[in-house]
UniProtKB/TrEMBL annotation:
It comes from the Bacteria. InterPro entries: MASE4. This is MASE4 domain-containing protein. Residues 50-280 form the Membrane-associated sensor domain. The keyword Membrane applies. The keyword Magnesium does not apply. It comes from Ralstonia chuxiongensis. It holds the Pfam family MASE4. Keywords: Membrane, Transmembrane, Transmembrane helix. The chain crosses the membrane at residues 21-40, 60-78, 85-103, 123-143, 164-189, 201-220, 232-251, 257-279.
Length: 308
């Protein structure tokens, strides 16, 4: 497993964050908090119903999360890190549940939504979606700490392609189970929607989901030493907390200011890790190009020496 850690340190995501990274992350988190505090008093202000908003927002979010998951699975293929596998699975879970949320949303593809959705289905899928991702982050933080403390306990030869495929199947199965419970099994869940407004029970459910996000943030903060990826994951969780707060805790229902603002927060939060991965990919490609150029120069130099 020490080989895995060495490979991970060679990646930007595995580097220790510098002051600039901390400052940037703190600035984004502080800005998110300021926007949240400013928006909370107006969260219940009813706005116009924009039918195109939800499909546009969720299509972008699903694509974002799928690309992020694919890149993180690529990181897992390099590092063979269980922590990276857990995080990649988290993004895959959010993408899969977001698909269910989109298909079940009333009025988009059918008056009551697809997948045999009922009036409570979409809201419950949202709760499963936003409670699930923090659990994967907690798993990432715990596994990362164990891999660093006990590297010999996690041999990389046990993490094969079958392991990754099995994990993907399990995650998709879990997402499908959540969607099925919220649609076919909706009668087993308490009512949290009354038309487009929230019931009092929603406050309890949303508060619990919010707590999952806070706990994940605390666990990740305590899993030191921090990597660059950890810092930006904490930013993602801060934005995720703002998302849940505006779109489920402090607002009153669909199509109010909190509904729209929270989802904008969610889309922005989902983009941070993807942006970091794309930057890393660009840097690694530039390093590869420089290495190839250096090898070419050395080969030409050696050929010249032999001719002499």
């Amino acid at each position: 497993m020490s080989e895995t850690l060495d490979m991970q340190r060679g990646l930007l995501l595995g580097l220790s964050p510098g002051r600039r990274t901390y400052w940037m992350a703190q600035a984004v988190a502080l800005l998110s908090l300021v926007v949240l505090v400013s928006a909370v008093p107006f969260a219940k202000v009813q706005l116009a119903k924009l039918p195109s908003f939800v499909p546009l927002y969720e299509s972008a979010l699903i694509l974002n999360d799928l690309i992020t998951a694919a890149l993180l699975f690529g990181q897992f293929a390099i590092t063979r890190s269980r922590a990276m596998l857990a995080l990649a699975s988290g993004y895959l879970f959010t993408a899969a549940t977001a698909v269910g949320h989109l298909l079940s949303f009333p009025g988009l593809f059918a008056s009551g939504g697809l997948l045999e959705a009922g009036p409570q289905s979409t809201a419950w899928i949202y709760m499963f979606w936003h409670a699930g991702f923090p659990l994967f982050v907690i798993a990432y933080a715990v596994l990362k700490g164990r891999e660093e403390r006990e590297p010999d306990r996690f041999p990389i030869h046990t993490l094969t392609r079958k392991t990754a495929l099995g994990t993907v199947a399990a995650v998709l199965g879990a997402a499908a189970a959540c969607v099925a419970l919220a649609t076919v099994g909706a009668h087993l869940l308490p009512a949290i929607m009354a038309a487009n407004r929230y019931t009092p029970t929603m406050g309890i459910v949303a508060g619990g989901t919010w707590c999952f996000c806070v706990v994940a943030l605390v666990v990740l903060w305590r899993s030191r030493p921090h990597l660059t990826l950890d810092i930006w994951l904490m930013v993602v969780l801060c934005v995720w907390i703002c998302d849940v707060a505006l779109s489920a805790v402090f607002n009153g229902g669909r199509y109010d200011l909190g509904f729209y603002a929270g989802r904008v927060f969610g889309l922005l939060g989902a983009s941070f890790v993807l942006l970091l991965l794309l930057i890393e990919n660009t840097v690694l490609r530039s390093r590869l190009a420089a290495a190839r150029a250096e090898l070419g120069r050395l080969a030409a130099s050696n050929a010249g020496d032999r001719e002499r």
